Amino acid sequence: MTQFNDFDIAEHLTSPQDIAGYLEASFEEDAGDGLLIRSALNNIARAQGMTQIARDAGLGRESLYKALSSTGNPEFATIMKVMKALGLRLRATAI
């Protein structure tokens, strides 16, 4: 019988390059509802420490969990605060 272990992407987001590449891919693949982007930000925040990211973003830990959940609907300002706390910035490129 084959045994599978749970995969947690947060355990593999160990470098700034990994994190940026992962978030960039989520921007490209998101269906337009933001779910994939919220999920990616959630995973990155967990990789870096949710409590510290919440503190650096000026949010409560529970508020951050809720905002980045699959049912969350964070304001754009919240996303920008979280990205800054994660050491990331939003960039636009022409397609």
From TrEMBL:
Transmembrane segments: none annotated. NCBIfam families: dnstrm_HI1420 (TIGR02684). This is Addiction module antidote protein. It comes from Pseudomonas asgharzadehiana.
